[in-house]
Design a protein that fits this description.
Elements: H1 2-17, H2 22-29, H3 40-43, H4 60-74, H5 81-90, H6 95-98, E1 100-102, E2 105-107, H7 111-124, H8 130-142, H9 145-150, H10 158-164, H11 167-179, H12 186-214
Antiparallel strand pairs: 1-2
Helix pairs in contact: 4-5, 4-11, 5-8, 7-8, 11-12
């Protein structure tokens, strides 16, 4: 895996420092390199379709290239640069396994959850840093929460995000995900992120108050006269 390790490190350098990491990744896709395991997980993105209604840019690979470029624009705002950029590249790694055609629709339900073990498998091929892998995969696990929380869907899991990751990092990745599509409305997507953060803060404060209210009050010892 020495050759693979070298490629992993090369990809990481482009993710961390390039203005547009997509240029290197696009060139890589035209070589046999992505045919080698575990990079083949990335190659599968090239042939995985998406709903043209929500992703007019085409395949998951095309979308991913747009997302990493958006992430590169804001990576200086991340508190965990390396994990953030790898999460941007791997955020939809679960789509090939979950994408199905339902009559005239293309769906990929639960690709966020399916992406977690695949990202662990990919990253574990190159690093034994379990804490780093966990930070990446938790961003992948929760990257769809912007949609779920803002639309008040039953899949929203604010409590899980609060326990397991940094909601601000989820919001930053989620913004890149939403902008990484042809024809994205930046103003609307930024407003969605603000709503997401406000709603998460409200739920967090409510949960804290409920916890405080549920704590038993200490009994005062009766005064003896």
């Amino acid at each position: 895996m020495t050759k693979g390790n070298a490629l992993f490190e090369e990809i990481e350098q482009h993710l961390l420092f390039d203005e547009k990491p997509s240029h290197f990744l696009s060139g890589l896709a035209d070589t046999p390199a992505l045919g080698e395991y575990p990079f083949s997980m990335l190659e599968r993105l090239k042939t995985t379709p998406q709903s043209p209604q929500y992703h007019p840019e085409g395949s998951v690979w095309n979308h991913t290239l747009l997302v990493v470029d958006e992430a590169a624009k804001v990576r200086d705002k991340s508190s965990d640069l390396r994990a953030f950029m790898w999460a941007a590249l791997l955020h939809d790694i679960g789509k090939p396994a979950t994408t199905v055609r339902r009559k005239s629709r293309i769906t990929s339900y639960d690709h966020d959850k399916a992406g977690v073990p695949l990202a662990i498998e990919f990253l574990s091929s190159f690093t034994a840093d379990a804490e780093f892998i966990q930070r990446v995969t938790r961003l992948i696990r929760y990257h769809m929460q912007i949609l779920f929380v803002v639309r008040d869907l039953p899949f929203a899991d604010v409590e899980g995000m609060l326990r397991e990751t940094d909601i601000r990092e989820v919001a930053l990745l989620g913004l890149c995900d939403r902008l990484g599509r042809t024809g994205a409305d930046r103003q609307r997507e930024e407003e969605n992120i603000r709503s997401f953060l406000n709603m998460c803060d409200t739920r967090s404060e409510r949960a804290r108050c409920e916890t405080e209210a549920g704590k038993p009050r200490g009994r005062r010892n009766p005064t003896r006269h």
